[in-house]
Amino acid sequence: MSNRKATREHGFSLVEMMVSVALGAIVLSAAVQMYTKGLGATWLVSQRAEMQQDFRAAANMMTKDLSLAGAGLGNGAAIALPSATNPRYGCDQSGSCYINGAAGLYPQNGGVPYMYGLIPGYQKGPILLAAQGASDVVTAIYTDSDFLLNCYIPKVSAKGVVTFSQPVSPNTWASEGCLPNPNITQPQQPNDAAAGLTAGDVVMMTLGGKTIVAEVTGAVTTTGSGTAQTWSVPFADNDALRLNQTGSGTGLNTASLNATGTASAAPCGSLGPCRLLIVTYYVDITTTPARLMRQVSGHSPMPIVENIAWLQFNYDLFNDSTLGYCVSQPNPGSGDAQDTCSNGLLPNQITKINIQNLALNGTQKGSQFGQGTGYQRMSLQTSVCARNLTYNNNYPN
Description:
Shape: elongated
Helix content: 10-25%
Structural class: alpha+beta
Number of strands: 22
Number of helices: 1
Radius of gyration: 31 Å
Strand content: 25-35%
Order of helices and strands: HEEEEEEEEEEEEEEEEEEEEEE
Largest sheet: 7 strands, antiparallel
């Protein structure tokens, strides 16, 4: 008979098990919190970088357009427009107008509407925040130097139709003085697929000794071939921008215009025809979040950046009569209490555009207008010299 020795194995007690689970939960919770904070920081940095990139792109685009205001419009940067119906801007081919749901009207001088190189729009935009009041709008107008329409000769061929033809010697474009540099040997055709005229474009041309501004209303058609080829462009009445007023004595229907325009191709903005870019910046609140929009001539507007929080301008002007300066005028020429210095002055006397505030909000947790749970707002304050509006160095020392 054998004698066996009994052994006893010990396990964890219930108390030990609960303590272990509690410690493990604490460690796991700390790890999860660290991971969550790291993930949140990564998301925050990426959102901030994206926001900065969008803001920088919008600011660069706006300041570039404003710096070109008036380029190519000639002395004074002011063009008289037909007055039978008020010409307008901020509308497209669909018939919709976008400046706070309405059209922008060109300022008048002596009862005649004028197209200036820069058109301020004091409080013409929507209200983003009641305490701020209405936002501003601004429109810069300049010639398109990339599309060489000035190499062609315009002629009114019918009511509301202009035909563009080639010079006598189209194989020697350089001698016409219309090419910007020797590397370009010939211009694009008026119906070029990439750069040519389309409905909504605005063209400035000299016809019968008059400067005419008109909006393209349809497709360009061609006739002939080779050096005899011509391009017919329709400028029909009832265009979106109300520029094509072909009634008696106005628009493209007067007897003096039924003749060849310039005798030969000429530099754009001098005598040669050229495409105008009418660029309007405004705030759109028809969608959420609010967007900064850019519209060109009679084309559909395009969003530039979302989460726009504020858009405000003021302007510096030079008085040619008194040789004095008017600074920080939010509504120049209006005679309002804050604009008495610039009372009676015109938009082409603006020497500097001050972007008083272009603001963009972060979107964390749906924050709007710098309130609630958002983490930041970006804003721009800068000035842009309108060097193409005035032709003297009329800036304060």
